[in-house]
Amino acid sequence: MPDSLPVHINRKELHGLEVPDTFETSDSFDVRLINHGESTHVHLHLDDSLSKLAALEATNYHVDRDSERRVRVTVDGDGETRGNLKVVTAYGSTTRYVDVRIAEPEPEDEPVQVDEDLAKPQPKRDSNTGFALADVPDEQVLAVGGAVLFFAVLAAFLSQNLLVVFLALLVAIGTLVAVYAAAAR
């Protein structure tokens, strides 16, 4: 799709306007006001349906003699619409309409960024071992074991219940085994 809509002014006659019949886009675009003759003012207007998705910064533009001026039409909304762009010169004596269709933008295929580290072979872990206590630092094992042992003894002392005392004893034995395994490394 073209990114600019050409409008020829004064090419064949004074105050003459030549515009394409239709224009299709999916994004913001420029209206190229190409003046082939005397300086003039050009009025641009988007109809109601185009104004829902697009906007002009201003509506009146001065185009110097034998020059070109670009006017940005900013497409902000999502969706499709069709409407008319009105182009007027010579204080309304010459008017032309361009049938403008704003289509949905094509989805862009964004490239996938791959980190260089991904190409390097990763060390293989034995899938049978899973999580090993040996992977945990000794200080953490001792700290958690001490805290568990403290709360187990406290619960047994406060409850004076035989079941709680038995469970606290099991926790204490498990903690001592974990501490012994950590120390054996």
From TrEMBL:
Q: Where is this region: Disordered?
A: 105-130
Q: At the top level of its lineage, which domain of life is listed?
A: Archaea
**Membrane spanning stretches:** 141-158, 164-183
Task: Write out the biased-composition intervals (Acidic residues).
Answer: 105-116
Q: Where is the composition biased (Basic and acidic residues)?
A: 117-127
Which key words tag this protein in UniProt?
Answer: Membrane, Transmembrane, Transmembrane helix
* Protein's name according to its UniProt entry: Uncharacterized protein
